[in-house]
């Protein structure tokens, strides 16, 4: 999953945290992933950029209430207003209509047909994250859903995804967003363990050179382990929660 400036339309290019305690979140993610903080100030709604070695990684904003704390994945659009219209046409719901973000881009927030929250990002001066596919950055974005076929159709229509079926067995049904030979995101059939009609969830995977050591740090800093670490065909994976309940996944990556 390359950095956002070369990503195709519909690919994940940004993710940010809706947090009820931004101060605690800053300390937690700094301790777990080594992220530094860039405070954008009141003129930007006190938005925060997380950075790694100076490169922009992700963002954070105050949770105004009405929704649990959590991370939002944003998909690239060349015209946020047109994408919002297509989301409605394809069976989704636009929660926050497209709006300008002080010249850096244009954004919207939507629910897909199963209720998974997803963002729309039309780049201006900011294309999205500067780094990906390494430790302490996003290495994968994945929609887990109990209505797999409906979701594949929705993202093809609403975001123009060019898809390829990676697996279609009872053990694993999985579709990829592809551009050339590069995979950018996936949709997984989670009906085997999601309750029927449960909302889908966009999962974000952060690279870790030592997943178990990262989990130990999470627990030391007041977070929790949601899904225990396990070795899979895709590396060693786990799911953690920060102190206010926002969840994110860990994925093993090689040491560079």
TrEMBL record:
Limits of the VOC domain: 11-123, 137-253
Domain of life: Bacteria
Pfam family for this entry, one: Glyoxalase
Gene3D superfamilies attached to this UniProt entry: 2,3-Dihydroxybiphenyl 1,2-Dioxygenase, domain 1
CDD domains reported for this sequence: SgaA_N_like
Protein known as: VOC family protein
Species this protein is from: Cryobacterium psychrophilum
């Amino acid at each position: 999953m390359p950095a956002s400036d070369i990503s195709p339309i519909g690919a994940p290019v940004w993710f940010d945290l809706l947090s009820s305690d931004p101060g605690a979140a800053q300390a937690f993610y700094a301790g777990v992933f080594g992220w530094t903080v860039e405070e954008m100030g009141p003129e930007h709604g006190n938005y925060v950029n997380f950075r790694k070695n100076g490169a922009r990684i992700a963002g954070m904003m105050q949770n105004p209430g009405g929704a649990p704390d959590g991370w939002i994945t944003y998909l690239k659009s060349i015209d946020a207003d047109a994408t919002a219209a297509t989301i409605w046409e394809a069976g989704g719901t636009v929660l926050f209509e497209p709006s300008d973000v002080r010249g850096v881009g244009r954004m919207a927030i939507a629910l897909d047909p199963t209720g998974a929250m997803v963002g729309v990002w039309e780049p201006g001066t900011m294309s999205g994250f500067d780094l990906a596919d390494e430790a302490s950055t996003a290495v994968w974005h994945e929609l887990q859903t109990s209505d797999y076929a409906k979701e594949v159709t929705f993202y093809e229509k609403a975001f123009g995804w060019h898809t390829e079926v990676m697996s279609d067995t009872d053990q694993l049904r999985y579709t990829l967003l592809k551009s050339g030979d590069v995979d950018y995101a996936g949709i997984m059939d989670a009906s085997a363990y999601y309750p029927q009609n449960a909302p889908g969830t966009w999962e974000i995977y952060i690279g870790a050179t030592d997943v178990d050591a990262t989990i130990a740090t999470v627990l030391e800093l007041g977070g929790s382990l949601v899904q225990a670490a396990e070795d899979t065909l895709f590396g060693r994976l786990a799911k953690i929660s920060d102190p206010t309940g926002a969840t994110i996944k860990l994925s093993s990556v090689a040491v560079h």
